[in-house]
């Protein structure tokens, strides 16, 4: 099953048609995506059987979960990325947050607040069922689906202060694009092994497979839910592969006019055009 949003409304993607969930379900499910995630098991059963419905509003796709109550993000979750950063592999997930105002859709302008903005392609997990002290073997039962994300990072702000300010440096407006769709796990041959890549102006700068993650999706859910409940609609940015600009020699950052494309196998792509701040 594949979902997206249009004008903040939950939509279902059927082949090449995008239908409005509230209209197609005759009001059984509301337009509010968060309210749908709260009833994800029931909704998924209906959605898999749906065959038609009224077309969704015209316009660009939005974030598949546009109003999450929590956004988790994981650092150093690919071995090669930890190596390029000169850091040891973490013994537990290096966790921070991206504040909700950084969230945006898949096809946007990225306003650069400085000359030190970097790219980080990420697989994003959307929670569909409350997870609290959830065992890894049960974790996928709590996942609504997967989408594409970018963890844009302002490296000076991120590193400022007596301790790093990861959450601030990664939360400027537009720094968390997600989309264009959410796919349920059963749409993949193996949801733990997907090709992921990032291109800047057509040049491939990151390329890996999600099977290279240090902590798998299931392990992340188990580790995070051991500390705090994961709520329907919450997002987990699962970390980025090697190839970020900050670790290059010489270092490379985004400039006005740059095009950033982020792709994950089977899901689709994000596209951001950089503009001056």
From TrEMBL:
InterPro entries: FAH (IPR051121), Fumarylacetoacetase-like_C (IPR011234), Fumarylacetoacetase_C_sf (IPR036663). It comes from Amycolatopsis albidoflavus. It comes from the Bacteria. Belongs to the FAH family. The lineage of its organism: Bacteria, Bacillati, Actinomycetota, Actinomycetes, Pseudonocardiales. Residues 71-272 form the Fumarylacetoacetase-like C-terminal domain. Transmembrane segments: none annotated. The keyword Hydrolase applies. Pfam families: FAA_hydrolase. This is Fumarylacetoacetate hydrolase family protein. Keywords: Hydrolase, Metal-binding. GO terms for molecular function: hydrolase activity.
């Amino acid at each position: 099953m594949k979902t997206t949003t249009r004008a903040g409304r939950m939509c279902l993607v059927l082949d090449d048609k995008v239908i409005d969930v509230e209209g197609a379900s005759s009001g059984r499910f509301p337009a509010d995506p968060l309210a749908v995630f709260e009833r994800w098991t029931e909704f998924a059963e209906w959605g898999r059987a749906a065959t038609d419905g009224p077309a969704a509003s015209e316009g660009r796709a939005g974030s598949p979960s546009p109003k999450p109550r929590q956004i988790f993000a994981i650092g150093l979750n690919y071995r090669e990325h930890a190596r390029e950063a000169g850091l040891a592999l973490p013994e537990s997930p290096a966790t921070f947050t991206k504040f909700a105002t950084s969230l945006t859709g898949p096809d946007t302008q990225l306003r650069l607040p400085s000359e030190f903005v970097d790219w980080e392609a990420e697989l994003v997990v959307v929670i569909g069922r409350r997870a609290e002290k959830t065992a890894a073997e049960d974790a996928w039962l709590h996942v609504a689906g997967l989408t594409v994300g970018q963890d844009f990072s302002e490296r000076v702000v991120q590193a400022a202060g007596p301790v790093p300010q990861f959450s601030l440096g990664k939360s400027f407006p537009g720094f968390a694009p997600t989309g264009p769709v959410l796919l349920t796990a059963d749409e993949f041959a193996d949801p733990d092994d997907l090709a992921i890549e990032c291109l800047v102006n057509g040049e491939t700068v990151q390329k890996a497979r999600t099977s290279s993650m240090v902590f798998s999706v299931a392990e992340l859910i188990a580790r995070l839910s051991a500390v705090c409940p994961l709520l329907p609609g919450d997002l987990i940015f699962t970390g980025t592969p090697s190839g970020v600009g900050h670790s290059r020699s010489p270092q490379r950052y985004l400039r006005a006019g740059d095009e950033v494309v982020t792709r994950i196998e089977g899901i689709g792509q994000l596209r951001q055009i950089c503009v001056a701040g």
